[in-house]
Amino acid sequence: MLQEEISLQTLTDNEDIQIGYSDSDIVIIDSIQKFAEISAAHVSMNAIAICTQGKVQGTLNGQAIELHKNQVAIVPQNVIIADPMFSPDLDLKAMFFTNRILQSFLREKMNIWNDVVYVRRMHVITIQNDDLLFYTHLYELLSLCFANKNSNPFSTDIIQSLLRSAVLGLCGALKNRMLTDSISLDMQATNNHFQRFLDLLHAVDVKHHSVEWYANELCISPKYLSALCKKRSGKTANEWITEHVLEDIRYYLRQTDYSITQICDRLGFPNPSFFNRFVKKHFGMTPMRYRQQGTTTS
């Protein structure tokens, strides 16, 4: 089956999809009726879709999924959505986020998102009318910001702050849902090591360790940890580690006044030269240049 790649670039380039807002990490879609013409799509971004009216159904990585009014779909990156069907009265607001911006929004609360989408695989939740009203008003406020984004020099920061509020609000609802739900015993055995790996990754101050280090802390083999991560999330253990290290680097370079040497020490790199090469490999520029670029654009 041919699949369409749904990425930030394809979303913003498609004239048939009504875009409310887009930047290098975020796409907000007002109408997704265009997706009715797609039999299968590989969605490379994290997505949150809020249904305020009507119904949509399809499959997510082969599993049936159905979304009704007052329900929210939480979709991790790199999944296959197939066979979508929409009711004529559907009203669905969709937000797409790169992993970078999602981690920036959630920071230490990212473990809630990971627990929901990768461990519990809870992709649809029902929200209360008050919560739906909150998101409706928030979207109206966002729409005002979208319309006037060229008149305020801080419009991108304002929009991202509002979106962060929306994502944090959703994570609060997810946490409440997890407190009332329990994982079945057979799922606990399967998910235990993966959950412990994610918990450890979020808990340690120094994340720049090898897969072997994490495996030893969990008392399992590195090969088993890597295979488990790939099976549960589609990402290797090393990819998980690298993503979290990069987010810490972004935070310290853009949000603190620590020197490059201090950041290098805090993040567990052996020396500034190694840290410099690591940053240049992943960001395409030196740590100092990355910091200066953030100062220029903020």
Main attributes of the structure:
298 residues; 12 helices; globular; alpha+beta; 53% helix; five-stranded mixed β-sheet; six-stranded antiparallel β-sheet
What does this structure look like?
It is a single chain. Helices cover 53% and strands 20% of the residues. A six-stranded antiparallel sheet has the order 2-3-10-5-8-11. The chain has a five-stranded mixed sheet with strand order 1-4-9-6-7. It is an alpha+beta fold. The longest helix has 26 residues, at 155-180. It is globular, with a radius of gyration of 20 Å. The chain starts with a strand and ends with a helix. Helix 4 (129-147) runs antiparallel to helix 5 (155-180) and helix 6 packs across helix 8 (222-233). The model is unreliable at 183-190 (pLDDT under 50).
What about the largest sheet?
Answer: 6 strands, antiparallel
Structural class: alpha+beta
Quaternary structure classification: single chain
Strands, total number: 11
* Helix proportion range: 40-55%
How many whole angstroms does the radius of gyration measure?
20 Å
Number of helical elements: 12
Low-confidence stretches: 183-190
What is the average per-residue confidence, as pLDDT, rounded to a whole number?
81
Give the N-terminus to C-terminus distance in angstroms.
44 Å
Reading side by side through the largest sheet, how are the strands ordered?
A: 2-3-10-5-8-11
State the order of secondary-structure elements, H for helix, E for strand. EHEEEEEEEEEHHEHHHHHHHHH
As a percent range, the share of strand residues is 15-25%
Question: What general outline do the C-alpha atoms trace?
Answer: globular
